[in-house]
Specification:
Structural class: alpha/beta
Strand content: 5-15%
Order of helices and strands: EHHEHHHEHEEEHHHHHHHH
Number of strands: 6
Largest sheet: 6 strands, mixed
Shape: elongated
Distance between the termini: 31 Å
Length: 295
Amino acid sequence: MNSVKTKRLILIDAHALIHRAYHAIPKLTTSKGEVVNAIYGFTLLLLKVIKEFKPDYIVAAFDLPGPTFRHEEYKEYKATRIKAPDELYEQIPKVKEILKAFGIPIYAKEKYEADDIIGTISKMTSQSDIENIIVSGDLDTLQLVSKNTKALCLKRGVTETILYDENEVLKRYGLKPNQLVDFKALKGDPSDNILGVPGIGEKTAIELIAQYGSLENLYKELEKWDCPLKSRIKNLLIKNKDEAFFSKQLATISTNVPIDFNLEDARWGKADRGKIKKLFQSLEFYSLLKRLKEV
């Protein structure tokens, strides 16, 4: 009996990758003075991923300007982040042009982040025979890893990557992917300005979630008269209960974004190679023209 080949969908967290590429690649300008380092890094990674994974489908997700539903719930969300330079944002339209030339559909939704869109699409396809590969510069997406979903994260620069399946997540954190939001609920996340439980660090957070399985189970344990937790930890958890559950809410990627997704629209193979070559020539990406022949 012939086994059916699993189809593969690549989900690109475009915003995260553009930011990562901008900071990883030294300032690069064309002969006309156009800054193109983020575009170059993003495109280099895109070509690498297509060559390596030979996808059947590809989509890209972007953030939109303006507040998200998380900002509406907590106005200090990501408030500690320093705004990126304008020359990064000026490169985003050109990245979108490249994606369109490659025939890759772009998804974005007001009030949602790119990883919410990715979470929603991966949930839609997870019940089918599709293997999802999320490509991101953000480890937050590891919470989406499952039997049918892996995450390719940037390790160093834009070409050194690590592919996380459930075992790799377990190896790194000692936790299952779906426990990472519980972990973050305790530890917090300074980059997103998610508070967590002050006084509980990474090691303790991992130990607690590994032992009790979830934030909810941990707080049920606290209610028992013979709870074995140290009084210091117990007091911190009781004092910051609301913060812990609110942090979990903020850290959880939405998988219910109202988007109109059609898998067929994402089928790989609709690239306009003539248009791509013209774009690469105008951006002076001559080294990438050779790589284009390999995908």
